[in-house]
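Sample pair:
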Amino acid sequence: MATHVKRAFKYRFYPTDAQAAELSRTFGCVRKVYNMALAARTEAWARQERVNYNQTSALLTAWKKTEELAYLNEVSSVPLQQALRHLQSAFAKFFAKRAKYPRFKAKKTSRASAEYTSSAFRFRDEDRQPATRAPRPRAPGQGSAGAVPQSQGRGRQPAQGPPEGRQDPRPDRRPQARCAAQADHSTRA
């Protein structure tokens, strides 16, 4: 039986004002979708019905088509779908009697987070050119001196610090593995 290793990375970044506004909108929409889906599932639970992920996903599509929730179309659909998946796993744990009934997310006390899957997330940095690795010194008689084997690939890119005027609050810490892309920013309304 083969085992699969899941790999995740946690990055720290310093968003611009426009990026902070986009993140704030995304966090709010994720919380709204989670709470609305939880309310719909709670109502179904009171009627002795079970609602699964596919039904809540269909509800999300219907909510996006309404006029009062049209703002859900302005953010990426991936974090919204991930919120429904998180709710599904919370209910699965509840039905397996490993957790309590899921709670609503409060605006001020819940953690602002959004999860992007690897298929919908792309890191783009136009300012930085990829660093190239210098050829390894070779002993005489081991091929041409200027040739670089294809297996070498690219070298490591230099680390970039925070933008001018901002300091990293924890400069001595290295990035840690994490499942969700999370951001803490101080521009909250």
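The chain is about 35% helix and 0% strand.
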